[in-house]
């Protein structure tokens, strides 16, 4: 695992609102690696917001842009902390690439905490309308989607700093 670790990115996956973006920043600071938020990277590459991609071209166009961004990010030679979008795991080839080039950590949380964290976020295209109903439906649809990860951490009762500390300690112990 030592040689693999030196070449691997730390890839955070999980449902929206589990803390991927915040933990990514904290973990990058702790370990001294670059932080990459895939949603921000997609917006930079596409020159528009994610909700606009969804509105103008639909989810399929967004997922294509997401896969392209993911593969480009994972091909970078320096270790990075990567926060993926919650749906990046929906394509099997994305999961395979994450496992090949990364140490994958799934962040989870219970539905009530996720709803509290994302209910008022108008930038999330999949939550338009009744956010609670959308979260519950998507959680059910993606129930096993994050199971491929090397490690899973439930963030429900943890602060983002506690999550970053757990990951950082585990990473350093890997050698």
From TrEMBL:
Cofactors required: Mg(2+)
Example GO molecular function: kinase activity
Cleavable signal peptide: none
EC number: 2.7.1.71
Residue sites binding Mg(2+) per the record: 21
Residue positions binding ATP: 17-22, 124
Catalytic reaction equation(s): shikimate + ATP = 3-phosphoshikimate + ADP + H(+)
Pathway(s) served: Metabolic intermediate biosynthesis; chorismate biosynthesis; chorismate from D-erythrose 4-phosphate and phosphoenolpyruvate: step 5/7
PROSITE patterns the record matches: SHIKIMATE_KINASE (PS01128)
Cofactor note: Binds 1 Mg(2+) ion per subunit.
Residues binding substrate, per UniProt: 39, 63, 86, 142
This protein's UniProt keywords: Amino-acid biosynthesis, Aromatic amino acid biosynthesis, ATP-binding, Cytoplasm, Kinase, Magnesium, Metal-binding, Nucleotide-binding, Transferase
Family: Belongs to the shikimate kinase family.
Binding partners and assembly: Monomer.
Cited PANTHER family: SHIKIMATE KINASE, SHIKIMATE KINASE 1, CHLOROPLASTIC
Name listed for the protein in its UniProt record: Shikimate kinase
Source organism of the structure: Paenibacillus spongiae
């Amino acid at each position: 695992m030592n040689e693999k670790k030196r070449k691997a990115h730390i890839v955070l996956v999980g449902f929206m609102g589990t803390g991927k973006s915040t933990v990514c920043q904290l973990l990058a600071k702790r370990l001294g690696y670059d932080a990459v938020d895939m949603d921000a990277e997609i917006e930079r590459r596409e020159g528009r917001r994610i909700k606009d991609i969804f509105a103008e071209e639909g989810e399929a166009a967004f997922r294509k842009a997401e896969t392209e961004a993911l593969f480009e990010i994972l091909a970078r030679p320096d270790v990075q902390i990567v926060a993926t979008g919650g749906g990046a795991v929906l394509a099997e080839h994305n999961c395979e690439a994450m496992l090949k080039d990364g140490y994958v950590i799934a962040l989870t949380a219970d539905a009530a905490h996720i709803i509290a964290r994302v209910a008022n976020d108008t930038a999330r295209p999949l939550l338009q309308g009744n956010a609670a109903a959308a979260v519950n439906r998507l959680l059910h649809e993606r129930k096993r989607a994050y199971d491929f990860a090397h490690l899973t951490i439930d963030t429900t009762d943890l602060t983002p700093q506690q999550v970053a500390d757990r990951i950082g300690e585990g990473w350093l112990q890997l050698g």
